[in-house]
Amino acid sequence: MNKCTRLYKYSIAIGLLSLILTGCDDFLDKDPIDKMIPTSFFRNEKELDLYANSFYQRMLPDGLSVVTRDGMGDYTSKNNSPTYIAGAYSAINEGSWNWTNLRNINFFIEKVKDSEVPTAVKNHYIGVARAFRAQFYYDKVTRYGDVPWISAPLSVDDELLYAPRDSRELVMDSVLMDLDFAAKHIRDTKDQTSSLMTRQVALALKSRICLFEGTYRKYHPEINLQAGADKFLREAADAAKKVMESKKYKLYSTGNPYKDYRTLFTSEAPVSDEVMFAIVYNKAFRRWHNITWKFNSATYGSRWGLNKQFINTYLMRDGSRFTDRPNYDEMLFVDEMQNRDPRLGQTVRSLGYKRSDGKAAPPNFGYTFTGYHILKFSLDDPRLDGVGESANSITLIRYAEVLLNYAEAKAELGEFDDKIWGETIALLRQRAGVDAAAPVSADPYLTETYFPEITDKYLLEIRRERGIELCYEGMRYNDLLRWKKGHLMEMSWKGIYVPKMDFPMDLDGNGTPDVAFVNKAPKDKVPGVYYYIIDNKTSKLTQGDHGHVTWRDNEKRQFPDKKYLHPISQKDLELNSNLTQNPGW
């Protein structure tokens, strides 16, 4: 038995054991595993549903990993950059790819096809499985590009274990077929728990995947697939439009723009008006995560924060551009936070923020390096700063993203106009409490700082809106990949403006000082003031004794073109001699 076969048998055994152990007590009433499958299982819908639960249990990420995905992005500062961005990375560092979930899906599809349940029931569950297979391959393609396409369960001696990589074109066309089947056959019943794969969720997933592929092909001429870009953009727009026309979802709004956005991310039960798919947590069942702890701890957390360049993209409430204001980049924190898009104060700690105990809670430089202290997904109870007992559900797909996908696909197709603006971006800004008038010109700040190759005023605003609306929902890195903007991750981590050293600054507008930037902490400290040490190595002020605080400018962040695809791991290359390495690795 060769090494590859041993590893494959091991993965199958672990997968089956996991399924048995996590499949609820119903499995205890079944025959032994050698008799349970297929002769005494897959006999009715209850059994199909029970097996399909394994897709959710195995394949959905945990809440923390969703939120912290944006650590691989351009707008996040923290202790240090990932090794992939600022370190020595090679095929040896890359972990071996795993295909256990794919085998579980393909096994299920094959057995359901042979089941005697009604055709509609059969197709529903095959559709659910194919939606998860589409997600599986989307993740593989975004990471590696060409990968082997396998649509049937393999035996331990199957020659496909040593298959070469199939073309991206073949794989993504196959993914599209999976998504089309799912969108046609999964039942079109709204799930009020936002925890099941439904037809509308499959359509939303299709809009996400097709938008990625269409724009990736458009902006990456080196893969020679630009001719197929519009096909995927069209599919993205059509899928999003079907969700919009279903009227099953809408943007959540009570008319309070200073609370509604944040409610989506602090509620225990998903806000099913808008949240289509989520990871559901529950205090009563002790199903918790530790996101609040992660963002409010100097030791457990990584002192996450947003960067000033991104903060600048938030508009004023009247819809005007913050970056059109005189001296916009040299305002004190308490001034730059005035009259901004209300989502800003629901994404980072801002003026007047208090915890549940009623105490003022300005940005804490013990927990962030830039001063833009993450609030989104973080709960107000200070007790949760030290325990992993947060129970707010974590969004995976929201209706807001569907609107953004539709807007961007139409803009990339050259079909965007004021009517579509009113159906998409205007609705998002109205919910946010921002004037929703269409832009009259391209934003020079966005073109200079982020997108110098984009002159379309609408597309610039769509990209602005996408960054703001979906911040910390785990999509920024893939957006940078598909736009071919990986070099933005080399950007300086710039924080708030500091007018001078040894100057206690008020950060929440209550008249009391909160932070002072110093070379050395004084003996007589002002109560409540955090003394931020400027060592002129890892922490600096851009003008020496004043300017923007920067963190980790001594890192060599690099994103050459080869990094748009990860290397195939050295282990996988050794196991399968038919695999080839990605360019540059």
Taking the sheet with the most strands, its summary is: 3 strands, antiparallel
Question: What's the number of helices?
Answer: 21
Radius of gyration: 25 Å
Taking the alpha carbons of the first and last residues, their distance comes to 30 Å
Task: Give the strand content.
Answer: 5-15%
The beta-strand count equals 9
Helix content, binned percent? 25-40%
| Spatial strand sequence of the major β-sheet | 5-9-8
pLDDT < 50 runs, ≥5 residues: 1-36
What is the average of the pLDDT values? 93
Order of helices and strands: HHHHEHHHHHHHEHEHHEHHHHHHEEEEEH
Shape: globular
Structural class based on helices, strands and sheet pairing: mainly alpha
Task: Summarize the structure in words.
- By secondary structure, the chain is mainly α.
- It has 21 helices and nine strands.
- The strands form four sheets. The chain has a three-stranded antiparallel β-sheet with strand order 5-9-8, with no helix packed on it. A two-stranded antiparallel sheet has the order 1-3.
- Helix 9 runs parallel beside helix 15 and helix 15 packs antiparallel against helix 19.
- The relative contact order is 0.12.
- The N terminus is likely disordered.
Question: Short description, anyone?
Answer:
With 585 residues, the protein is mostly helical. The protein has helices spanning 3-22, 33-36, 45-59, 63-68, 83-86, 100-113, 119-144, 168-185, 199-219, 229-246, 260-266, 291-295, 308-311, 333-336, 399-412, 418-423, 425-432, 444-449, 457-469, 476-483, 570-575; strands at residues 76-77, 275-279, 305-306, 394-398, 493-498, 515-518, 530-533, 539-541, 547-551.
